[in-house]
User: What shape does this take?
Amino acid sequence: MKKQRYFSPRQIVLTVIFVLSIVTIVSANDDLQNAYKAYRAGEYGQSLALLKPLANQGHARAQIGLATLYYRGYGVPQNYEESAKWYRLAADQGDAAAQTWLGRLYYSGQGVRQSFEEAGAWYSEAANQGYMMAQRRVADLYYSGQGVPVNYKEAAKWYRLAADQGDALAQTMLCSFFLKGKGVTKSYGESAKWCRLAADQGVANAQSLLGNLYANGQGVPQGSKEAAKWQRLAAEQGYVKAQKKLAWYYMTGFGVSLKYDEAAKWYSLAAEQGDAEAQKKLAYLYAKGQGVARSEQQALKWLRLSTGCGQEEAMGNIIGHIIEYDNDNLVIKWVHSAAEQGYGDYQYQLADMYRYGEYGLSQNDTKAVKWYRLAAAQGNQNAIEKLEDIEIGIEIEKTISNLESDDQNCSRPDLPNVDATTSQWNKFDRRRDNWYDCMDSTINSSWEAYERLLVEIGGEVSKEGYEYPFLFGTTLVEKLKKLYNKITDLNKKNIAEWEDMRERRNSRIDEINYRNERRTNSSRQYQYQQQQRPILQPVPSRGQFYVQPGIQ
Assistant: This one.
């Protein structure tokens, strides 16, 4: 017969406590699961009702759940202090997730006094337990030098621990570290390895970095199409660097067909996110009408957003870009537009373009003077000086023109024939003297104009001669020299003509006298001839029309 076993009262009590504990744990776990189900379903009030009793009983996972509700303001008013309180209670129990979250609150100063040191302490507690997110956070602090000295080797160590567990952001950082040799030995192969792991998880930064590696053939075979593929994947996620890179590929035809409209599209997406470089590139596309309809308004808008400059400076930047890279027609359009808006510097620039016939414009002094005057009215000193120069130049040309015209208008008389009467010879002498006086006046007035203009450009007039300013080879000096040569040549020509006329006249008189002496001595005939013979005297030489000083 078996001996019957009896339990002592103590054993019975312990057994009851154990069974009740199992029931309580099962019940708590059920409540916790139901709380999380309600959270996922958006039933935050029910989730709160289930979590709060468990959290008050010290259940760490419930405390984390309750802290999260307070942090996000789900089912309760958002309260970072309450959130920090519950995270701390769970963290004090050694929960790695709670320690990491509490570290985040210290990092950002939410619900607690901001402290990188405290953040690092809680991250380290969790990281040492192998918690992936905390390992990456510790690495971030060593990388940025927040709460600890900058230490790329330590950062690389913790990034690798997190990356080995599949943390995509840590893998991306390792990609960058191996690419640049930060905290590790530089290796394109290792860089490509970690970039691909992160890129395959959809991290835009990693995809863009992998695209760069393919573009440069670093750690992978060089491939423009692969480069464009990975940049596109990143760009489609809104990653600005990839959007700009893809836009540039379309501008240059690298790995894709050359399409300015696609380039404009991707620059526009990056520009709308506030990227200054993309805004500037987009501005230039609008300025040139590449991939978009040409629009001065849009070009100026994006360039001003990019640089923070004013309208005039923005126009200057665009004009400078177009001058460097593009065609003359666009330069003319932009400079003309800026000039018409009243910007003095561009009125001056447009005047120069007309004066010297630049960028395909026909040389036009009239239009140059117009724009110089507008610029000068705004106090542009260069325009004032150029306006003076061009007006002096116009006066020089006018003086030359008048000199040539007067030379034609001062009628040179023809010498009478041997049978001319006394009245005809007298008429010739009057016409000859008028011609002389006309040319004498023309040459004298031209020399006076020459001397005045020489002084105006900074030259000197003295008894020793003329001295030009130190402007050799300039347009004004060359024009003034042309006037000088015109006057001296005409002076010499007229002196020669006067001497020729005098000699021919005296020769003609001698011929007449000789013929008269050979006439018959018939009294009637002789008297008749004496009555008709011109009473003429030889004309002396009158010398130079104008004696000018020598020229230096």
Q: What stands out?
A: The chain has 24 helices and two strands. The CA atoms of residues 522 and 528 lie 10 Å apart. The longest helix spans residues 475-517. The first strand starts at residue 460 and ends at 462.
